[in-house]
Design goal:
The structure is a homodimer of 591-residue chains. Chain A is an alpha+beta fold. In chain A, 36% of the residues lie in helices and 20% in strands.
């Protein structure tokens, strides 16, 4: 069925429900970073497969919003349909709220699906509706009515994330959450975010690719802890686990009855990750504190065993990546490989590692000018062939029971231009300047961001992305509340938080370079000036010294690289073949 | 009359007006950084002379709040009186709003003086009063009733700031303000800030020490421009100047009638720098946009002639400071000098410079451990004697018709410890790292702050102040909206803005070090990554190479210092005696 036919069916339904406009949002009820198949409604409706999308349909308009990463792709994918692309954050293109104000006269009816609309977004539609005298109707899931073979919510089994990995029992975590709730002046909380539910109850699953989460909600107050989950997901083991930890399970859909039955209390809810459908059923006697989920704060601070485990995971991941780079550097027919096949090969190396489950995100293997597109992902068919020249950028990570990894290396496949070497070296300088900095407790990643950019800025170069993000523990590869970014906000960096450091240079039509390691925030000296913190690097993968222009490095830079490479050799070489280890010795030599 | 007697009189008056508590704030009606004598009511009442102070008096309490800079001084100055010191931002000490909530039961009456209370602060008293059922009464200036010899508002003459200095006529500035008002959706604005009024109308005066402002208000809309000013201040020259520029003058006190007569319009007012007394008289048909004064934004961007002029002012100031350092270094009986006398000597050198008017703030000359107190100011009586050892820190600046200067040098008077040299060198590294950085348009000083601290952080050292502030043009030495600070906020740094860069090391009981130059933001390269900006240093004064530990410097650091010193010699030596020039050549030699 093509997009226009689906659109016709959607409009018929809209007419039936007397809706003059209908919004389709690209979300699941848990506002997950990666969507399960059931909630890829925009791809189903429009063919557009990008991650950032929003659709507005009226009787004579079919509009699809997306951002600059996807302009080319979206045009291609919606070609031939009635859908028209709207560019987000681009002059000349109104956003969806402005467009609603423009298209709908007073008295018209705007439909949204409250199940997949966060309360925060709902309030924006409410504001524009009130302002324009539009009726906002939030109770129609039109997509399910026309998408007859819509995938069900997955019934994949959940499993216990063993205490030897998690380091802290669900019971202890629930108690920590209760303490924070008390501090915040809230009696209870409903958690929709799947990574938060999985972390809190020490469970994992396979409902979403790259993200070992379980489709479930949590409710916690001072006396009870509930999980709302489909029974099919539950094994005897997991039932025992819940019992041991004082967790009562209820049906997945019971979360709404639970919310509806709460009375005379203050509930902590994150409006950005909680659906309108939860807010809507709350009794008037329930007061809401809008706050980031307290579990998000708790899980960002890794416990001692998590720290030990994830360090081990980074060693294993470093072994896989080092073997992969060895393989690339020694491949006798590199021309037979392309961006897609090398990703497959890397997956082989990871699969050989203990506790490996799956990639933590779709591997980015981008050759030469393709690497200048920051979110490039090669399709099997369209992948670029490799050759013995230029850079291959590989940004990848693994989900291990004992940690989530994320590392980028830019690898010289052969000769490089002076410009490529210069850009590689300046990227590395920025990376090192931030990784080896010391900072005062209370400092945010926003305040540190410029340290990483400065060596590039001095060369009049900048990268249009953040510098780093938090990383979960066998959960999301992007987890807050901390980040390192030129956009204000973000939490202060605290001891035992994990962040990536990943500056880069991206030159359209030429090359893309990024060097990314993951660091854990550690306590440093405390003196009269305050408590200082610093970063401990956890990633151990050789940085390609073939790509370095040493004339751009000062003595401290060289010392950093040599110390780092010494550590790489010490930590990784034992797990390599004799040939690989000999090569690693050579490529980690002092410069 | 001692403090307790004044307090008694104040309480009698409070009883007469049935006030259960009374607030005395440390402000003038223009919320000036430095207060004219008439508005030093807290010093008059309590003897406390610090700049940050707030008083609350009830029948049985007399409380004085101040901040950490002044704890020791305040205790000393209020000793023997009933006043009790309250430490601002210190655990265990409620702030004034909390204290009001604690001390006043429902139905009691709280008095404030609306003439010296900003609307922003008034709203905080209003909030706590509403919350606690307290009556807030804002129409009693009790201080004037008991301070019988209270100084009048000064009648010092105003004068025209010549176009050859200001670079832009008042008429042009008024037009720019009108354009910004239109953009902001406001029909008019009342400006209370004296530096803003002086800048807008190109007038100056002598009403406040160190700040060449005139006591006046401005009102501007699309068709009229008013100044509210005492007639005694006006000469024929200034009347002509007003006429030429389309400015109508009214009596100083007429500003309230003007505010009261406005109807059916949107008025732009800065709640932080506008008194409650202005807000109170506004008609209900007047809508207020609370915004930083638009003139503050306009005057932060220096015009071409201002830039040329202020560069010249910095050369003159550099000559004065260089001569001063020569004098210090060659003084044969340094033991006869103290922190106070060297400040007097420096003033002599400045006075010899063309267009010099007065210091731009009270000179800080702090010897050895005194320099660890960041806001130390030596009194004539208590000044520390100098000797041929350790550091003398001198932070000073001048008001010239062609610019306002602010420079700090830390000067070795003799032998230094290794620790002193190390701290001096790391301070210099931070200073250089920021001064020679390049950054993307849109970057705030907050985002750059860590660049300056990093070399100190690496040594586990931090300074408890901002890194830099904006500087006015023959006006305030501290002017926003830009700053370089670890506190979020502050405007993006734009081309032709001026900022100081002044990191330091402060070790209690040991030494204090600060190196401060002033820079102007200049356009740098524009390319696909965006418009880059950089700093051009305007201060030219030798940095004491006797105090540098070269082993802590890399090649780029040394190049920076050598290039800077070459420029110092080139720009300053022509204005020195032959002996001074020969010495300058020596102390600006390459290291």
């Amino acid at each position: 069925m093509d997009a226009n036919k689906k659109l016709g069916m959607l409009r018929n339904l809209m007419a039936e429900y007397r809706l003059d406009a209908y919004v389709v949002s690209n979300a699941d009820p848990h506002f997950s970073e990666y969507l399960p198949e059931r909630y890829r409604q925009i791809r189903w409706l429009t063919n557009f497969s990008g991650s950032n999308a929003l659709v507005l349909v009226t009787n004579d308009q079919a509009l699809l919003w997306t951002d600059g990463r996807y302009f080319v792709q979206a045009e291609k994918e919606i070609a031939g349909s009635e859908f028209k692309m709207m560019k987000m954050a681009t002059p000349g293109y109104p956003n969806i709220y402005q467009m609603i104000g423009k298209l709908l006269p007073e008295g018209r009816r705007l439909g949204v699906d409250r199940a997949i609309l966060s309360q925060a977004d709902y309030e924006k539609y409410e504001e524009i509706s009130n302002k324009n005298g539009i009726d906002l109707v939030d109770d129609h899931d039109l997509i399910s009515e026309i998408w007859t073979d819509r995938p069900e919510i997955t019934k994949n089994p959940a499993y216990v994330h063993d205490l030897k990995f998690a380091g802290k029992s669900a019971q202890e975590k629930i108690q920590e959450l209760r303490d924070l709730l008390k501090e915040a002046g809230a009696q209870g909380t409903i958690i929709s975010s799947l990574v938060d539910v999985a972390w809190l109850y020490n469970i994992r699953g396979t409902d979403i690719a790259n993200n070992p989460v379980v489709t479930a909600y949590a409710y916690v107050d001072q006396t009870s802890a509930n999980i709302f989950i489909d029974e099919e997901k539950l094994s005897l083991e997991i039932l025992d686990h819940f019992k041991e930890n004082g967790v009562d399970y209820l049906k997945y859909s019971e979360v709404f009855a639970k919310a509806n039955n709460l009375r005379n209390m203050t509930l902590l809810l994150d409006k950005k990750t909680s659906a309108r459908s939860i807010f809507k059923v709350l009794d008037d006697s329930v007061k809401v504190i809008d706050s980031i989920d307290l579990t998000t704060k708790l899980k960002a601070i890794k416990n001692d065993l998590e720290i030990k485990n994830q360090k081990h995971a980074y060693i294993k991941d470093g072994v896989a990546l080092t073997k992969f780079i060895y393989w690339l550097k020694h491949h006798e027919n590199i021309e037979t490989e392309d961006e897609y096949t090398v990703g497959e090969k890397l997956e082989e190396f990871r699969k050989a590692q203990e506790y490996y489950v799956e990639p933590s995100f779709d591997t980015i293997a981008a050759y030469k000018e393709n690497a200048a597109m920051m979110h490039y992902k090669a399709s099997q068919a369209g992948a670029k062939k490799l050759a013995r020249e230029g850079f291959l950028l590989v940004d990848s990570g693994g989900q291990y029971y004992d940690g989530t990894t994320d590392t980028t290396r830019t690898i010289a496949l052969g000769d490089l231009s002076d410009e490529e070497k210069k850009d590689f070296t300046l990227t590395l300088k920025g990376h090192m300047d931030l990784m080896n900095t010391v900072f005062l407790q209370g400092t945010t990643g926003f305040a540190l961001d410029a340290i990483c950019r400065r060596p590039l800025w001095l060369n009049r170069s900048d990268y249009k992305s953040g510098t780093g993000h938090g990383v979960g523990f066998f959960l999301g590869v992007h987890e807050g509340p901390q980040s390192i970014s030129p956009r204000p906000g973000g939490a202060a960096l605290e001891t035992s938080m994990v962040v990536t450091i990943e500056p880069g240079v991206y030159k359209e039509g030429k090359h893309g370079i990024r060097t990314e390691n993951v660091a854990i925030v550690v306590e440093d000296e405390k003196n009269l000036d305050g408590q200082f913190l610093s970063f401990e690097c956890m990633s151990f993968v050789p940085i390609d010294i073939d790509a370095i222009d040493p004339s751009l490095l000062n003595d401290q830079d060289k010392k950093y690289i040599n110390d780092y490479h010494k550590a790489v050799y010490e930590k990784i070489s034992d797990y390599l073949t004799r040939e690989e280890a000999a090569w690693l010795k050579e490529v980690t030599r002092a410069i």
